[in-house]
UniProtKB/TrEMBL annotation:
Residues 1-26 form the signal peptide. It comes from Novosphingobium colocasiae. SUPFAM superfamilies: alpha/beta-Hydrolases. This is BD-FAE-like domain-containing protein. The keyword NAD does not apply. Residues 74-282 form the BD-FAE-like domain. PANTHER family: AB HYDROLASE SUPERFAMILY PROTEIN C4A8.06C, ALPHA_BETA HYDROLASE. Keywords: Hydrolase, Signal. InterPro entries: AB_hydrolase_fold, BD-FAE-like_dom, GDXG_lipolytic_enzyme. The keyword Transmembrane does not apply. Transmembrane segments: none annotated. One of its GO terms (molecular function) is hydrolase activity. It holds the Pfam family BD-FAE.
Length: 331
């Protein structure tokens, strides 16, 4: 298991200037905000990498281009064969301030292989980027997750996706974004990217690893800096309305999709009480939820014992993969 899991230029410049000038003209001449332009051509294009078990990964697919921000990209992992497959979207962590869609969770790990291992089980897997909170605070990152889901559904034929079976999985800040999407989807699009609005952003199943789900009960001593920036207000000075708006627990409903929450007992960044409270709240309304507590490990499955860290990562990945198998695969 350890090896398996761990194991544009003148033309473009002219085009960019023309696009910017056109957008500026539209904003002056008309009252409506112009739609987001498509991403500019990339001379390097998309790149394809090969993994074991016939899995290929197409990297740096642009799914959102909001004027004033960097293009948002995703990597797409697909196994050999034909026919539509369920989709799993991975949302990385990093306190909404740092991180990358390929970044390892534990030391010496190639996380792309973990995503490829999941794809080999019969999934299309998309690992996405989003705007960080110093670029734009909440709800920008949440809007970006919704944009990615709609983009993937709109391009389902191209990528071989079964749009009726869509899972989402995130770690830490990514877990907050993923679980929020599970319980608060289907709302009118309010973000800057207004593309693919005929597509739903709702998912079929969700997994959260050591995420914060209620900002009102998350103790202020834990990760106050990232929270201040993400919320755009200091801890202790945020309104109750804003704290509730960013908390997934606010939106739970008996009709929510199945949710799996995994955390460690020694987490000093997002305490396990966050997952416990979210699970209890879902259970209280008879919403489908599973809670997995891993003893002796902290945030990112960290432990002074490297073997325990690796074992916790492997266990969490296997539980996650089995959960998606049970919820997304045709039975």
């Amino acid at each position: 298991m350890r090896n398996g899991m761990l194991g544009s230029l003148t033309g473009l410049a002219s085009a960019a200037l023309l696009m910017m000038a056109g957008a500026a003209h539209a904003q002056v001449a008309g009252s409506a905000e112009p739609p987001a332009p498509p991403p500019l051509p990339d001379p390097f294009g998309e790149r394809v990498f090969h993994f074991a078990n016939g899995v290929t990964a197409t990297t740096d697919i642009a799914f959102s281009a909001i004027p004033g921000f960097r293009p948002l990209l995703l990597d797409l992992y697909r196994g050999a064969g034909s026919g539509p497959r369920p989709l799993v979207i991975y949302v990385h962590g990093g306190g909404w301030m740092i991180g990358h869609r390929r970044a390892p969770m534990i030391r010496n790990q190639d996380f792309t292989k973990v995503l490829a291992d999941l794809s080999a089980r019969g999934y299309v897997v998309a690992s996405i980027s989003y705007r960080f909170s110093k670029e734009a605070p909440f709800p920008a990152a949440q809007d970006d997750v919704r944009t990615a889901i709609r983009f993937l559904r709109a391009n389902a034929n191209k990528y071989g996706i079964d749009t009726s079976r869509v899972g989402i999985w995130g770690a830490s800040a990514g877990a907050q974004l993923a679980v929020m999407e599970a319980v608060n989807c289907g709302k009118p699009a309010s973000g800057e990217d207004q593309t693919n609005l005929t597509q739903t952003d709702c998912v079929t199943a969700a997994v959260g690893w050591y995420g914060p789900y209620d900002f009102r009960t998350w103790p202020a001593k834990y990760a106050p800096g990232p929270r201040n920036v993400y919320l755009d207000c200091p801890i202790g000075a945020c309104s109750d309305e804003r704290l509730a708006a960013v908390s997934a627990i606010t939106y739970i409903n008996p009709k929510d999709p199945p949710i799996l929450l995994i955390t460690g007992t020694e987490d000093n960044t997002v305490p396990d009480s966050q997952s416990r409270e979210m699970a209890a709240a879902l259970q209280a309304i008879d919403a489908p939820v599973q809670l997995e507590i891993i003893p002796g490990v902290g945030h990112g499955w960290k432990s002074p014992d490297e073997a325990k860290t690796i074992a916790a990562m492997d266990h969490a990945a296997e539980v996650t993969f089995r959960f998606f198998d049970s919820k997304l695969k045709t039975r």
